[in-house]
Amino acid sequence: MASDPKSAWTALKEGNQRFVGGFPQHPSQSVTRRAELANGQNPQVMLFGCSDSRVAAEIIFDQGLGDMFIVRTAGQVIDSAVLGSIEYAVAVLGVPLIAILGHDSCGAVGPRSMRWIPVRFRVDISGIWWCG
């Protein structure tokens, strides 16, 4: 992966094109790469996404081990642990790009999800804004 935001973003787009086209390369997964990562990590992207099992960032962006620092929560809820992880990625790991990954049909956000959430835990989601 690259060491500047534009190159990191380009690598994500190219990886996603490989995934969508059915031609993933599965980079950075060799025995040598795993040995290198035992000495530390140098991810080029900090990605915040949903913990939905259908949205595995390393796979849909065709990235390898150590290429991305990923934080996932159900419905992309931001709390102090998420903020601390983002700060760590930027301040300690020096990632040049922060990406936020949303997806369709999120069961954790929306009216349908409220049916299985006990009343005492329900929150007002009217302030959530969608971009697309």
Automatic annotation (TrEMBL):
Pfam families: Pro_CA. Catalyzes the reversible hydration of carbon dioxide to form bicarbonate. This is carbonic anhydrase. Keywords: Lyase, Metal-binding, Zinc. Binds 1 zinc ion per subunit. GO terms for molecular function: carbonate dehydratase activity; zinc ion binding. The keyword Metal-binding applies. SMART domains: Pro_CA (SM00947).
